[in-house]
Every structure is written in structure tokens, then in C-alpha cells.
Amino acid sequence: LMSELSYYDAVCRMIELNVDPEYMEGWMGGYLRNSRREEHEITAEYSSGFEDGLERDTRHFCSWVIPLDTA
Predict the structure, then answer these.
(1) What are the pLDDT tens digits along the chain (71 aa)?
(2) Residue 40: other Cβ atoms inside 10 A
(3) First to last CA, the chain
(4) pTM for this structure?
(5) What is the model's pLDDT at position 69?
(6) In the list 14, 23, 44, 68, which could disulfide-bond 49, CB 3.0-4.6 Å?
(7) How far is residue 52 from each of residues 20, 68, 69, 70, 71, measured CA to CA in Å?
(8) What is the DSSP string of the chain?
């Protein structure tokens, strides 16, 4: 059985990783079973986050990381 991060730990992890804020917002909404945004406000990032959040899936965070400028 895959041990699942708590909601709090998952959100902290996304912040640490610098995950795309749209994905994060979608993930949190899905996890908490909130209703989806209005159709015209849905982005690909939000939608992917929402689906993962519904499944309590934390495996895709790394795909949505925004690299920090190393300058």
C-alpha cells in the first residue's frame, strides 16, 4: 500500500518544490472535494492538479515544478 502524504504534508512539499501555483490550487481543490472552477478559468495545470487531488495522488508533483532561476 502506497503511504499517502497528509494534506498538510503534501501542500508543504509542493511549496518546497516550487510547484506551479495553478496545479497546486487544482490539487488542493480536488483533494478537498471543492467544486471545479468555472469553465473559462480552467487551465491545463489546474485541471491536472484537480484530477490528482481527487485521487490523493502525490506522484506527479515533480512534473509541475517551476525551476528557480539559478542566476
Answers:
(1) 445 689 999 999 999 999 999 999 999 999 999 999 999 999 999 999 999 999 999 999 999 999 987 66
(2) 5
(3) 41
(4) 0.88
(5) 78
(6) 23
(7) 14, 24, 27, 29, 32
(8) ------HHHHHHHHHHHTB-HHHHHHHHHHHTTPPPPPGGG--HHHHHHHHHHHTT--TTGGGGB-PPP--
Q: Give residue 52's Cα distance to chain centre.
A: 7
- 57: Cα separation from own chain's centroid: 9
Q: Which of 55, 71, 59 is nearest to 17 (CA)?
A: 59
In the block, cell 480552467 appears at 42
